[in-house]
């Protein structure tokens, strides 16, 4: 398995940065609500059609990761659960649940921010995106604005430790 | 990887059969709505607290597998996304998305019906339930009323081929 540090440094353009900044806004809002601060936006035909932060605590729904919520909202928005040609921007490396949801939604690409050493399915714990047993293949690129995403998470958990 | 045919023959009791029959009812209803006929129930403290069929087409939500829907409904029902001690009964071997959702919800056990040779994550395609890189561990037992679940799926796809 390739270690996350071995991943190539992708070249992200200004538009990628713009969309990831929107995902970071969702992450920050989620953190302010007491959720682990992770955010996502779904881009289709060059525009954001769904955006959400993590809402697991608010909804008491174990599946309410930001990615799952934007995939559902995006499908409803365009009236088709097949989100071909769409790109997900998410501040944290997806877990195996969210990675597989993206694959089944037939996304063109996942762009993620900071690695998740505990649950990351794009190289940190699993390489699920490149597992040849799973279809269809899905492309992913990590590391965009990773420091911003990581800072939100670190501050959240530091505060949590102080208050517990 | 253990092949599905190598899995032990679990001993299921009458209660297990009762709950799986309820999941089969949900699968049949889903099929009548034009969904791939898969159904699930979530059992907590000996009672069904959530039930659903697959609603991917109805909701145009790529994540709307029966398992994802019952996990969300169950969390809302008991006011806690941590569904420890709960058991999921589902008519089809879970895909990697649903398997991981069950793990993160901290379910005690998944009981499933018929194997899924295309996407099954409990032995058919992946052995995700037993992957030591993923935590916490989750127990699963397959094959309960498999023929009933399989018959629903076969009839559904046979009809679909006729009408297409």
Structure report:
- 2 copies of one chain form a homodimer.
- With 164 residues, chain A is an alpha/beta fold.
- Chain A has 5 helices and 5 strands.
- The first copy, chain A, has a 5-stranded mixed β-sheet.
- In chain A, a hairpin with a 2-residue loop joins strand 1 and strand 2.
- Chain A is globular and about 45 Å long.
- The termini of chain A are far apart.
- At the A-B interface, helix 2, helix 3 and helix 4 of A face helix 2, helix 3 and helix 4 of B.
- Quaternary class: homodimer
SSE pattern of chain A, N- to C-terminal: HEEHHEHEEH
Low-pLDDT runs of chain A: none
Q: First CA to last CA of chain A: what distance?
A: 37 Å
Q: Could you give the count of β-strands of chain A?
A: 5
How much helicity do the residues of chain A have? 25-40%
Radius of gyration of chain A equals 15 Å
**Largest interface, Cβ cutoff 8 Å:** A-B, 37 and 38 residues
Provide mean pLDDT of chain A, rounded.
94
Secondary-structure class of chain A: alpha/beta
Largest sheet of chain A: 5 strands, mixed
- Strand composition percent of chain A: 15-25%
Lay out the secondary structure.
2 copies of one chain form a homodimer.
Chain A: H1 14-32, E1 39-44, E2 47-53, H2 56-59, H3 66-78, E3 87-92, H4 96-104, E4 109-114, E5 139-142, H5 146-163
Parallel strand pairs in A: 3-4, 4-5
Antiparallel strand pairs in A: 1-2, 1-3
């Amino acid at each position: 398995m390739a270690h996350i540090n071995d991943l190539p440094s992708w070249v992200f353009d200004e538009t990628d940065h713009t969309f990831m900044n929107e995902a970071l806004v969702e992450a920050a809002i989620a953190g302010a609500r007491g959720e682990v601060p992770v955010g996502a936006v779904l881009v289709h035909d060059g525009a954001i059609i769904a955006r959400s932060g993590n809402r697991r605590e608010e909804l008491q729904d174990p599946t309410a990761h930001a990615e799952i919520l934007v995939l559902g909202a995006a499908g409803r928005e365009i009236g088709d659960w097949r989100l071909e040609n769409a790109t997900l921007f998410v501040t944290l490396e997806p877990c195996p649940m969210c990675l597989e949801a993206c694959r089944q939604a037939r996304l063109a690409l996942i762009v993620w921010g900071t690695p998740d050493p505990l649950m990351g399915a794009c190289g940190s714990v699993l390489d699920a995106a490149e597992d040849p047993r799973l279809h269809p293949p899905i492309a992913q690129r990590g590391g965009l604005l990773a420091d911003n995403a990581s800072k939100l998470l670190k501050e959240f958990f530091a505060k949590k430790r102080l208050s517990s």
